[in-house]
Write a structure and sequence with these properties.
single chain, about 575 residues, mainly alpha, three-stranded mixed sheet, two-stranded antiparallel sheet, 5 strands, about 65% helix
Length: about 575
């Protein structure tokens, strides 16, 4: 079993309950006033500041989780809104003052090791970008994000007299009955369009506020501001453009061929959007599990087969009641893993029904939870802060490690092969979507003066650029023009999406290594994740036995490998 060691408070009172900023202020002030002229003083200060940050992080995460789980719960909403309005702004100002104190210390130019050098580099970047006038803008943006989640959580449709969430309705797109698939697709599309103007208005406000933040910090646009805010020291926006072009060249032709094959097998002249997920031979939709509890049981068995430690991570989450995985009304869409920096056991959130994608999402989030446990022994919270480019390697690789364990979910050999083919197809399909979501955000923020309709026009143009031959969307232009609105990252975490593409290429390299030497590859995977943020991204990837590389050459190198896997498990 796992030996999970929660952070033991030495600076804050063990029973301190964080109700508001006033409960934190005395301890925050103590840290600001503390002398750090000697190295021992400095090290003790860093440990206490880390403990303070972990306690505050856990409070924020729990408020976020409760608000996500019950978007209609006024008490949960108020608790989160109070954090955003009254605690977060104070923390921002205080955090900048702490950074300035550290940067003014005599040790800043004499880091003891690589981990400290990278930490100081990050603090310098954060300090250079901080502007007090941006703090209220950040608060307003967090409040707008909360609004979007409330709107999404309220979305439902009625099919065959039953009210269901959009993830539940989406399950019907796997059904063999084409008329039922079309009915479900049209209902989902129409429901999303009901909130088009709401999302357009919210995003219009977001763009204006984010652009102003960039101007306040001395940047010409929010794209460049956010690139630096995400600490992307190892690649440029131009590298992202090259990736977009590589997807067009290497992935779209493969998907066009797959669509042609799909249409032939379904005996259709042209595919409609509701024809892309179902089985081409009219077989019943795959059902990976029967309810969230069954998914957890089977998922743990899959993880145990890869490495018992991975299964133990989810057991710990289950034992501590840190799983909420089933789709239900008034629940924020999507899935995430909420890191808890004090207790070290993350909260896993999802909206599962019974699909192959739901099962792989569970394994994906288990990868994030495993990453949290592996880096929990690092001495400072600052060392546990990682780039999303390595965080998503943790999760996407876990999905691929699990690939040969799909018989746990599908005891029938034929169904298992279908599931494996569906999983690999999804990887291929996601590359253009990742490119689109990244590309459109460059458009949005390099041209902040665009009206909502001009933004939707820009999306439509990019969607056509990455559209795959063989699918007819012609009668669905209104919905097609606003598809970007369904991707929550665009609202909540702007420019957080290219990381999935970078990490997918890293995960595919690990999978290739795993097929050659699973024991060595898992050891390298664990070693890289345990380093947290104490090494640069290229060094973390190197520790994992792979290259940090999302160039056209790397995509070209890995595409044949992916197609080999498709051929092995094709129906």
């Amino acid at each position: 079993m796992l030996d999970i060691k929660p952070l033991q408070r030495q600076f804050l009172p063990v029973d301190l309950k964080i109700d508001n900023w006033e409960t934190l202020a005395p301890y925050a002030q103590q840290l600001l006033e503390r002398d750090i002229s000697t190295r021992d003083d400095f090290d003790k200060f860093m440990r206490d500041e880390s403990e303070f940050g972990a306690a505050v992080n856990e409070e924020e995460m729990w408020r976020y989780v409760r608000n996500s789980r019950y978007t209609h719960d006024e008490a949960a909403k108020k608790a989160y809104d109070d954090y955003v309005a009254f605690i977060s702004p104070q923390l921002s100002e205080w955090g900048n003052a702490i950074n300035q104190k550290i940067l003014a210390s005599p040790f800043i130019e004499q880091p003891q090791d690589e981990a400290e050098r990278l930490l100081f580099r990050r603090l310098k970047q954060e300090a250079s970008m901080f502007r007090s006038e941006n703090v209220p803008l950040q608060t307003e943006l967090m409040q707008l994000v909360s609004q979007t989640n409330e709107v999404r959580g309220a979305m439902s449709v009625v099919l065959d007299g039953e009210t269901m969430t959009l993830p539940q309705a989406n399950q019907r797109l796997f059904w063999p009955d084409r008329a039922k698939r079309e009915e479900a697709w049209r209902a989902i599309n129409a429901r999303r369009l009901q909130d088009k103007e709401t999302f357009d208005d919210i995003f219009d406000q977001m763009v204006k506020k984010r652009h102003q933040m960039a101007l306040n910090a001395g940047y010409k646009n929010f794209r460049d501001y956010q690139h630096d805010a995400y600490l992307r020291f190892d690649y440029t926006p131009e590298d992202c453009y090259k990736f977009h072009e590589a997807v067009e060249k290497h992935i779209l032709p493969i998907l066009a061929h797959m669509n042609k094959k799909r249409a032939g097998q379904m005996k259709l002249d042209v595919l409609k959007p509701w024809d892309l997920a179902c089985d081409t031979f009219g077989r019943p939709a795959l059902k990976a599990f029967d309810g969230a509890d069954d998914m957890v049981d089977k998922g743990i068995a899959v993880l145990d087969a890869i490495d018992p430690m991975f299964g133990d991570v989810v057991r710990a989450q289950r034992d501590m009641d840190r799983l909420d995985l089933a789709s239900r009304p008034h629940k924020r869409p999507g899935a995430y893993n909420a890191s808890m920096n004090e207790s070290h056991v993350a909260f896993m959130f999802a909206n599962a029904t019974s699909t192959v994608d739901d099962a792989s999402t569970f394994i994906h989030e288990a990868g994030h939870a495993t990453h949290d446990i592996l880096k929990s022994r690092l001495p400072l919270g600052a060392y546990k802060v990682v780039g999303m480019e390595i965080a998503e390697v943790a999760s996407m690789t876990m999905e691929l490690f699990a690939f040969d364990q799909w018989p746990v979910f599908f005891s029938d050999t034929e169904e298992c092969k279908r599931a494996q083919e569906e999983f690999i197809s999804f990887i291929l399909v996601m590359f253009p979507w990742m490119a689109q979501i990244d590309a459109i955000q460059h458009e949005f923020y390099l041209k902040p003066e665009m009206t909502p309709e001009e933004r939707n026009d820009a999306w439509h143009a990019i969607a056509r650029r990455f559209s795959v031959e063989g699918v007819d969307y012609s009668e669905f232009t209104p919905g097609y023009r606003t598809q970007w609105q369904k991707q929550g990252h665009v609202f909540e975490d702007p420019f957080y999406y290219i990381e999935y593409a970078i990490a997918q290429l890293g995960a595919l390299q690990l999978w290739r290594n795993y097929q050659r030497d699973p024991v060595k590859t898992i050891a390298q995977y664990k070693a890289a994740l345990a380093l947290g943020g104490t090494k640069s991204l290229p060094e973390l990837y190197e520790t994992a036995g792979i290259k940090f590389d999302f160039s056209p050459a790397m995509l070209a190198e890995l595409t044949p490998f992916l197609m080999e896997q498709m051929a092995r498990f094709e129906s």
